[in-house]
Amino acid sequence: MIPIITIDGPSGSGKGTLACRLAQRLGFHLLDSGALYRLTALAAKKQQIDLVSPQVAAIAEALNVRFDADGAAFLDEVCIDSVLRTEQTGAMASQIAARADVRAALLARQRAFAKAPGLVADGRDMGTVVFTDAKAKFFLDASAEIRAERRYKQLIGNGLSANLAALIEEIQARDDRDRNRAIAPLIPAPDALVIDSTLLTIEAVEAQMMDFIRAKGVIT
Ligand code: C5P
């Protein structure tokens, strides 16, 4: 059995950062599942296919994607990491992510990331749908304001432009769609440890996660 750790939560909750830190610390593989939804949306746009077209599922299925050792994403062998992380791409990803055919098309690709010695997977439905028998599941949350602030800093840090007021609205709209969709909505798995990171540092959240990971016997 390959040990799997899942981290779900809304955007800006810190799940991407923590998934990365835990994967490095434990020497596990990393799955940034949101990147696959973002890449699918970008591939559809590149082929001038409407996001509501049934063809989007076929695009998800055939996606020619590769991540390098630093996690940078390549679509058809072209590095598209900067456009991948914009809030506009996030909004497009969230539209196609509400569709059952697209989610089904990405399922096997996500599960294929589970390889020895282990996997840390972050997203919206890692613990509830994709890796239901994961050994340690987390759900990270934080207030909408702090999440928008974190996303703002992240976008600026990546050299992208951002407007905090607009970002708060965009993030809220995306999260509402992710939480209220019929298929694989953003909710904590019943066996997930829920952590509200609003008032916590990354280090404090990581410490809580490591305690839970040890308690669940993922590592000794
Ligand atoms: O995590 P990230 O912000 O990159 O995800 C972009 C969008 O992809 C999310 O807003 C969500 O709609 C979708 N997503 C999803 N399920 C996942 C990961 C991401 O529906 N496991």
SSE arrangement, N to C: EHEHHEEEHHHEHEHHEH
Tally of domains: 1
The fold-level CATH name is Rossmann fold
| Structural class by helix and strand composition | alpha/beta
Q: How would you characterize the largest beta sheet? A: 5 strands, parallel
Number of strands: 8
Shape: globular
Q: What would CATH call the homologous superfamily?
A: P-loop containing nucleotide triphosphate hydrolases
The helix content is: 40-55%
Give an overview of the whole structure.
The protein has a single domain (4-203), classed as P-loop containing nucleotide triphosphate hydrolases (Rossmann fold, 3-Layer(aba) Sandwich). 50% of the residues lie in helices and 15% in strands. It is built from ten helices and eight strands. A five-stranded parallel β-sheet has the order 2-6-1-7-8. It has a three-stranded antiparallel β-sheet with strand order 3-4-5. A hairpin with a 2-residue loop joins β4 and β5. α1 packs across α10, α2 (33-46) packs across α3 and α3 packs parallel to α6. The relative contact order is 0.22. Residues 11, 33-34, 37-38, 90, 93-94, 97, 123-126, 174, 178 line the site of cytidine-5'-monophosphate.
Sum this structure up briefly.
This protein is of the alpha/beta class and 220 residues long. The protein is 50% helix and 15% strand.
